[in-house]
Amino acid sequence: MIFNNIKYNVANGAAVLTLNLPETLNSFTVAMHEDVQAAMLDVRTNAQVRCLVITGEGRGFCAGQDLKDLMGSGAEEPAELGEIVEKYYNPFVRAIMTLEKPVICAVNGVAAGAGASVALACDIVLAARSASFVQVFCKIGLVPDSGGTWNLPRAVGMARAKGLALLGDKLTAEQAESWGMIWQCVDDDQLMGEAIKLAEHLATQPTKGLASIKKLLNESLSTPMHQQLENERSAMRMLGQSNDYKEGVAAFMGKRKPEFKGY
């Protein structure tokens, strides 16, 4: 698949989606959103894809919305923000969080505004040591969107979430790791190598089981405990019939490496 605003390729079971407008720190435009939506459709439906990596080209991951793109050609007023969120940002975040495959975010530089929210929507976040996260919304009179108000307090706790969102201070990758906001901070020159290595590992694992883990964890903080127990039981019942479970048990009993097919 060929795109103008992103790069997208699939190899060894892993898809890599790279935001590719480096001159604007990969700020979102309508054209980029449309490319992202097409790529995410392939990720969801392509049986060869069992893990996704999202990253950015150049020195930034994503600086959020391209404000110039909102104005349009010759427009006196910007586009209606709720419509933009509903049409582009919310579908992207939902696509990430409901994808029945693991999603890794490799944050290669600044992740600001919606860029930070997209990163937090992913399952595992790796960040280059030079990367940073900035909740810039408060500086232009807006609120964190793209799931920011949902994922941020769950990642760092309410006190830190309020501080970050109300003050808009830059958070370094090392601080984000120490706060438990991301999985790991790595040296800049190792970021993509580590991300691809992790993605290719996850692509060999029991994908259906990983999808259920992801779903249950995402739901856990808003589900009553008794209901969560029922949800776990239902997942175990379903997964107990899967080929990957049978293969995992057979491999364990046979003292060999399992060969999971993802179903």
SSE map:
Elements: E1 6-11, E2 14-19, H1 30-45, E3 51-56, E4 60-62, H2 67-71, H3 81-98, E5 103-107, E6 110-112, H4 114-121, E7 124-128, E8 132-134, H5 148-156, H6 158-167, E9 170-172, H7 173-178, E10 184-186, H8 191-202, H9 207-220, H10 225-239, H11 243-254
Parallel strand pairs: 2-3, 3-5, 4-6, 5-7, 6-8, 7-10
Antiparallel strand pairs: 1-2, 8-9
What does this structure look like?
The chain is of the alpha/beta class and 263 residues long. The chain folds into two domains: 197 residues, 2-enoyl-CoA Hydratase, Chain A, domain 1; 48 residues, Lyase 2-enoyl-coa Hydratase, Chain  A, domain 2 (Orthogonal Bundle), CATH 1.10.12. Helices cover 48% and strands 16% of the residues.
Give me the CATH architecture of the largest domain, please.
Answer: Alpha-Beta Complex
The amount of beta strand, in percent, is 15-25%
Rg result: 19 Å
Spatially, the strands of the biggest sheet line up as: 1-2-3-5-7-10
Structural class comes to: alpha/beta
Please describe the biggest sheet, giving its number of strands, its sense, and whether it closes into a barrel.
6 strands, mixed
Q: Would you identify the CATH H-level superfamily of the largest domain?
A: 2-enoyl-CoA Hydratase, Chain A, domain 1
Low-confidence stretches: none
Helix content range of the residues, please? 40-55%
**Number of separate structural domains:** 2
Determine and state the CATH class of the largest domain. Answer: Alpha Beta
End-to-end separation: 26 Å
Q: Determine the mean pLDDT.
A: 96
- Total E-strand runs: 10
Q: Compute the number of helices.
A: 11
